[in-house]
Amino acid sequence: MATTIGLIRHGVTEWNHLGRAQGISDIPLNETGIQQATALANRLKSETWDMIFSSNLSRARQTAEIIRQLLGAASVFTDERIREINCGLIEGTTEEERIARWGVKWREQKLEMEDFKMVAKRGLSFLEEVSIGHAGKKILIVSHGALIGLTLQHLLPQLFEKTYIDNASLTVLTRIENEWECQLYNCTKHF
After folding, report:
1. How many CB atoms lie within 10 A of CB 83?
2. Which end of the chain has fewer CB atoms surrounding its CB within 10 Å, N or C?
3. pLDDT digit string, tens, across residues 16-42
4. How many CB atoms lie within 10 A of CB 145?
5. Is 84 annotated in the active site?
6. Among the options 65, 84, 91, 144, which is catalytic?
7. Pfam families attached here (predicted)?
């Protein structure tokens, strides 16, 4: 029995547009992000999805709610485990500001950021729990770029040495027994 997971990155925000690290800062979608979420929802409405989960951050919840309304789903379940990486001291800063404060090698410093492996562990444990608890279902999960990317890198390392996840993109995974496969990656054909 196959379980299908649709991983969705939230629509764009003003901070995305400005190149600011968002992390766990609760930034809402901007007008473009609302349009992106609507375009994705219109794409998904021709398909059957059983459940929608979302990060508890407003940009993901807004995206999930737009999808829920167009799909006619009963509700969106939120879970803190699928929220974005905590960016620590770099939250709210641009690349230019980070270089000015911490130098060009700022990525080599801790800067109170959440560990990448811990982010992947959160994502993996959520995927495992949802795919086992709702086996055979088609489940949408609205989350964030770093969480989705790091989860994919750890779930399917042979496929995803590096990842880039576009705003309002769709990645589709299937799980049959204990085997995961990626059917679609970072798709934005709905734009």
Report:
1. 21
2. N
3. 999 999 999 999 999 999 999 999 999
4. 20
5. yes
6. 84
7. His_Phos_1 (PF00300)
Max Cα separation, the chain?
53
CATH fold for the domain made of 2-187: Rossmann fold (3.40.50)
Collapsing DSSP to helix, strand or coil, 52 comes out as strand
pLDDT for residue 74 is more than 90: no
Q: Is the model's pLDDT at 164 over the cut of 90?
A: yes
**pLDDT tens readout for residues 47-58:** 999 999 999 999
Quote the CA–CA distance of 39 and 22 in Å, as a whole number.
23
Query: Looking at the DSSP assignment, which residues form a beta bridge with residue 138?
Result: 4
Q: What's the predicted TM-score (pTM) here?
A: 0.96
Residue 73 has pLDDT above 90, yes or no: no
Mark whether 17 is an active-site residue: no
- β-sheet bridge partners, residue 139: 5, 51
Query: Residue 142 is encoded by which pair of tokens?
Result: 């609205």
Residue 179, CA atoms < 13 Å, CB-side half-sphere: 5
**3-state per-residue secondary structure call for 114-177:** CCHHHHHHHHHHHHHHHHHHCCCCEEEEEECHHHHHHHHHHHCCCCCCCCCCCCCCEEEEEEEC
